[in-house]
Design goal:
By secondary structure, this protein is of the alpha/beta class. The chain contains 25 helices and 17 strands.
Length: 587
Amino acid sequence: MPHPDPNHTDPTNSEIAAALDELGDLYELDGASIHRIVAYRNGARAVRDASKGVAALAREGTATQLPGIGSTLQEKIVALATTGEIPALEKLRAKFPPGLVQMTKLPGLGPKRARRLFEELGVDSLAALREAADTGRISALKGFGPKAEQALREAAETFTQAGPAQRIVLSRALTVGEELLAEMRALKVTERAELAGSARRMTDSVKDLDIVATARDPAALAAAVAALPQVESASTPGPNAVRIRTHSAVNIDVRIVEPDQFGNVLQHLTGSKEHNVALRDFAVRRGLHISEYGVLDDNTGITHRCPTEADVYALLGMRFIEPELRENRGELDAALRDELPVLITAADLRGDLHCHTTASDGTASIEEMAKAAITAGYSYLAITDHSASMGFGADVSADQLKAHIERIRELDATLPDFRLLAGSEVNILPDGSLDYPDALLAELDWVVASVHTSFRIPRAEMTTRIVRAINHPYVDCIGHLSGRKILQREPYEFDLEAVLDAAAHSGTMLEINASPDRRDLNEVHARAAAAAGIPLVINCDAHRTSGFEVARYGIATARRAWLTSQQVANTQEWEVLAAQRSRQRSA
């Protein structure tokens, strides 16, 4: 049912998700049950993952078809779409001082502990928190202590100066974290150290990093970490922990634990929160209580400390669950049934089908890119420079493409045991047509079609545009389907279901673009595509010889999508893949 006001603009999925996330935070502050809190957070994630406008679905009464959206959340979405506000959210906002909500964003505090400070000390803002810490009132509370007081003082000062922690694209965070991890492992006192948190799950972006370590002398390791050259500032090192901030402005929490507890803490800190909540609920039904300290058996009173994560899951009767799957998307049931997939790895990739040279906006020649692909271990590479209408300033005209194909063919003939393919990344024009004539496209070994212009057209028009390209007889693959840039640009609107139906019918492949600021398809869409039987390819979209290093992020997205090597076409040799292309099916 359309909105009665023709000038009304529905809230975007991102705006709806933000409201549901805020409701979850406020309900936690209000002491609601964990199930209610998680329901709002799961709902927010479902809205973000949705391929359709959720406000319109809610008014039609069909938003409940989305996983995680029940009738209660649908009613709240309708209220937001109709009136611009959610009454329950406004009521909760009025119940708590704005400064108290701000306090819940501090690392190490959270809603429950923030509410204790509010109720017992009257702390209702960052300024009040700093004053309470300066006067020693926080350390006098049971469960806090001097170290927690100092950490909260530092966190409040950082928040006041720099604002809330900003998210960081995973590739940047891992560059920092893995360098620091290598430095830690080189310290004589370190026994073991691993990344935890969302970075270990290989999410698109992170707020900060977590490292779990063991050491012969934990306090010495904490002090040594604080003194590493990458560290700009550090909290006062404790006997088994330190929080640091690197010169690249990445915050890292380092926890040092006993070796026989390493698996418990690593599992707990890797998360996600939704996975851990589901795991705890499952454990309770079996008479067990799981936490970072161990697995307590109610019958025996014994707390099992686990040196490995596999031991944690084994105590619950489950197979080990890979970190990338820990999002509460069915992995617990699959682990219990021994039906977890054997996930794809980087070693499975045989070739790459999307890269650029100096002919368009790349920085290396055809020969240099081919050599880089050989060094990366690939047996084939498609050169896919941009077509004529993309506006990059050095795109390839139709006449230039003919000469480009000849150069690629000539070089291919000189490369033993390697196949260099003549391809193109063509622009999908607003009407769904392509910007090269069909006769020229037919000469190419591989055609990837992508939207690079006119992003903000109506959803129905964008859907028609993409579907028309999918059905083109010479399009082998659709590149970076949603057009998103992580933390920079929201995906454009289109009907995912219609696109997947078209791709499944035509046999046109879909790309997981491994560029770390794209990772597009995302894992939710990639999983849906695989379930529809659509062949996927993982491409680096390399613009330089070092560009093949980003394959790990495409692999990470595929693993988060539960994909096996059999569901990714370029794990096969070129001759096998070529025979599966849609143009072969329609020939």
